[in-house]
Amino acid sequence: MTIEIPFFRYPHVFAQYRGDVLAAFLKTADRGAYILQDEVREFEEAVAGFTGARHVVGVANGTDGLTLALRAAGIGAGDEVIMASHTYVATAAAVHFNGATPVLVECGADHLMDLDSAAAAITERTKVIVPTQLNGRTCDMAALMELAEARGLMVIEDAAQALGAKFRGRCAGTFGLAGMISLYPAKLLGCLGDGGLVMTNDDAMAEQLRLLRDHGRNAEGEVVAWGVNSRLDTVQAAVLLAKFKHYPAEIARRREIAARYRDGLSGLDDLTLPPDEGDHFDVYQNYEVEAGRRDELRAHLAENGVGTIVQWGGKPVHRLSGLGFESVSLPRTEAIFERCFLLPMNTSLTDDEVDYICEVTRKFYE
Ligand SMILES: Cc1ncc(COP(=O)(O)O)c(C=O)c1O
Question: 27 near 20, Cβ under 8 Å?
Answer without folding.
Answer: no
